[in-house]
Amino acid sequence: MADQSSDKTEQPTPKRLEDARKKGNVAKSMEINSAFILLSGTLTLFFISGYMFQNFSLFIKHVFGNLMSYQFGMDSVRPYAVSLIWISIKLIAPLLLAIMVIGILANIGQVGFLFTLEPVIPNPEKINPIKGFQRIFSMRSLEELIKGILKIAIISYVMYLVIKGHYDDYFLLMDQGTGQIISFMMKLIFQMAIKASLILLILAAADFAFQKWNYLKDMRMTKQEVKEELKEYEGDPQVRGRIRSLQREMSRKRMMADVPKADVVITNPTHYAVALKYEPDGMEAPRVLAKGSRKLALKIKEIARESGVPIVEDPPLARALFKSTEVGMEIPVDLFQSVAEVLAYIYRLKGKQLA
Prior knowledge:
This protein has a domain at 243-350: secretion proteins EscU (name from scop, 3-Layer(aba) Sandwich). It is 66% helix and 6% strand. It has helices spanning 14-22, 30-65, 77-111, 129-136, 139-165, 167-172, 178-218, 223-234, 237-258, 295-307, 315-324, 336-350, and strands at 264-267, 272-277, 287-293, 311-313. The mean pLDDT is 79.
């Protein structure tokens, strides 16, 4: 079976991208989420570490200071458990809240506001073992493996540089107290976390660009798919042609119904026919009620004769009117004089006066 991916040479249309988005299929990098969550978590811990340490110390002092007075029984254990859970929530709530907010913002920043239940709808394809093996041993899996190894290698090297940079400080810890050692270790961990986060952000930006490129490549379409989508969007060409034909026919019928209202029909005499109407009180210039060439011109002349509308043969004027006007338009300024002479002639025959 031939690989159809080589036939997908066309860029995805907006409709295809929108349909994919509705199904939750968008260009997205999990590295962006991981990097921002790690960075936000590290910064949050740095700023609230004093708050957490103080509350945790008070909790430990309270527990061990009243240890002898505790009564452990079926009724007394529950308040202790509730108190322990509440203190734990107070300690970790700021960290969890910061991580949750940053995680949501990282997703919105990549794909915008998107809510769909499509990815969680049961799909037999997702539990198909053959498809599963294909995904495991696919080129995409190999790419993810290489990215993971590269990420671990770079972060490990950065951590090694941070640890090596404090090599001389380790010997000084032998003369330090427990609090000073813990403070030093926390600062060291903070430095490693911040630098690892920044490295992850750089890698995440590159990964997002790659995911975007890969997504657009996967969403490419064949020429036939583009044609089918265009046909679906705009309708079948034959149907559109039929609609346009009916519209032209209706417009022609309305035009023919206006011919009896004309003051004059100017002809070529057989190639063109233009029906004009002029009302001095309501029009600034004569208006074209109908026009046509060949068979349509003959039909206009026939209706004009049946309705008693004067027909004037003036080939140059007929050609000029036909080419420079549309039905419903007033005649151009440069034809005023010629048309006025024709109307004046017609009005003299009818005993009217041209305003």
